[in-house]
Amino acid sequence: MLIFTVLGIGGLSVELNKFKKIKLDNLGIGIVFGILWAIIYYLSPIWWVNIITFPLLFYAVYGILLGLINIFKAIIFSDISLKSKILVKIPLLVGQLLGIVFVILQIIKILKII
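Below the sequence we write its predicted structure tokens.
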């Protein structure tokens, strides 16, 4: 099951890199760091492990915010034809992100972690 999760995250990063005008590498890296932090936080709720993994959470938040800023910057400062293309692709991106979240939740449910 972990292999499918890694493949899903890899597929998500490939899809994020298909946007030519928007740099979404930071968003993908932030999501991966966030998932890693959440797994470590859930599996070992020890205070010193949480302190050690805090930078991982910081990098996750930084990457996600930087990716979102890049998306909004590209939408605001682009011409009309690019704006329409981006506005069509953003719902597809959101759908793919929701898909991977649901896959991860299903895997967690199968493994009876929650």
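The chain has one domain: 2-110.
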